[in-house]
Design goal:
four-stranded antiparallel sheet; 272 residues; alpha+beta; six-stranded antiparallel sheet; 8 helices
Length: 272
Amino acid sequence: NEDFLWFLNTSSMAALAVFDGHGGPQAASMASVKVFQELLPKSLDLLQQEPLPPDYGWIANFWVQHLQASFESVQQKLDSEKAVGGTVANVVVVDKQTGLAVLSWIGDAQALHARRIDGTWQVLYFSQAHQCIDDEEWISEAHSLKDHWCDRREKPYACRGHRTSGPKSCIGTTRALGNFGLIKSGLLVLSKPQTKTLFLRQGDLLLSASDGLWDVVTPQDILADLTALSPSGCDNVRSLGPSLALEAERRWQAHGFMDDVSLVAWCAELLG
């Protein structure tokens, strides 16, 4: 297994993260530790200030800036150590007082925000995986390089090589951390994260997971199962993780192969 994850739940904040490694566990391990060490102590100090200013937009700006800085720091560290392999990442940080959350992701580890409305669970936001069919920033840079294109024969891949001779190397996402060897060989892999501000209510679902889940289980599958269960709210969410992992494993086995499945599910328990 090349995946790492963590979940933090304090009196003032919650944070959940998934790091899905490829080419070995080194990059995912380093990224998970470094983001935790750089982001969370600063966040705890921030939210424990008394009194907090009435405008909470600055909290979102703080997290956006520090998440971007954390990812950049990880990339620099991996480059300096010429780390083998790479990792995608998905990190969500939540202020329990206001319900404000900031999601930052890179690659195809995705996050789902859902809410129970009139008895039915509904998707409020589902982050989009970074792939070469629709990552506009990657497409723009790839166009200028001329020898990159999108290989769509099986799934979207970012590929390098001349069309006449076939791709020389490929990676299944346009953004990731690490990948020193691939980048040195000329493969275009961006290390810039995308961010999104979310607003949670009591009992909302946050789910962060690797593509080992999302490749075989859709958000609609998950929410349909939650709606069908008799208990409401957090009772269902607390048992969601193990059941999803088992369902993903069953579906992978039906395909005849397996991918690592890593996920963190949280039912929003807010103070306000």
